[in-house]
Structures are given as C-alpha cells and as structure tokens.
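Let's practice the habit of predicting before peeking. Look at the sequence and jot down your guess about where helices and strands might fall. Then scroll down.
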Amino acid sequence: MSQNKTTGTHPPAALEHLIQCFGDLLFDLCETLLASPEMAQQAFRTIVKSLRKNITSQNYQDYERAWVLQIACQELIALSPHHGRRTTASEQIELDATQNVASRFKSFEFYFNRLKTEDQILLLLRDKYGLPYPEIAASLGVPEDSLKIRRSHALRALEEWLWDPQK
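Done guessing? Here is the structure:
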C-alpha cells in the first residue's frame, strides 16, 4: 500500500482522518440538500466511496478540505435533481400568496430549496460554515469573482421571494 505524504499513514487511516475531520460537515450538507434522511445517508456513503477511491490524489495531499468538498459537491449536484428537496408548483403558489412576511420567514427552507443546488451549496459553505471564497471556488470549480456574483444573485433572489413574492 502506498503511504499518504501528508499524514504518513496508509490510505485507510487517511480516510478515517478525513471522516473524523469533515464527516459532520459532509453529512450536514447531505441532510440539508436532499429530501430524506435515507438519501442523505446514501449520499454520504457515496461520497465516502469516492474519497476512498481518490485518496491518493495529489489534490488531496495539497488541499485537503477543498478536495473533500469538491468530491462532495460533485456527488450532491449529481444527486440533487433526482432526490433534492423541491417545492411543488402548488406549494410555490401557496407560499407566494402568503402576505404575512413572518409566515414566509417560517417557510425559509422552501424558498431556499428553489435555488439551484450549486447556489444552495455556495450559501451553506460561505454563510453557514464561514469557509473562505478561494476554498469554495476550488470546491465548486468556479472562479472566485463568479462565485461572489452568484452568491449575490442567490441572496437577492431569496430576498425577493421573502419580502415581495409577487415579483
């Protein structure tokens, strides 16, 4: 077996290290983006399999967290259209018809789920976990300036849906 240059451990130990360091973050991303706890668990297992398969990658050795998140983002983006949390058309109409701003804020999750999966991941990584833009850009494979613009657009969309859903 080859040794990992960063930790001096064999790949299974390196995988264990990754799961200890980033497992909670990865599972929370899965739970937030996917429609059911079962899908979140399945996605988490898929991400771990991908990590195991690619653990000897030079990217892992150079950019540990960004590399882990890049694999997780690729898997979640692939799964999300089929298993993501989505609002039905009738639920969207009902939400938009609600005039009470407080009621709309209570339904924030439904508005958040209207965003593209990539934008949801961006907002979660930046605003919930406080990751720096360069790391998120590496994780999503998007230039940093584009990422900042996408974040601004996503926040503006949420603001419009929450404050003035008739737009």
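How did you do? The chain has ten helices and no strands.
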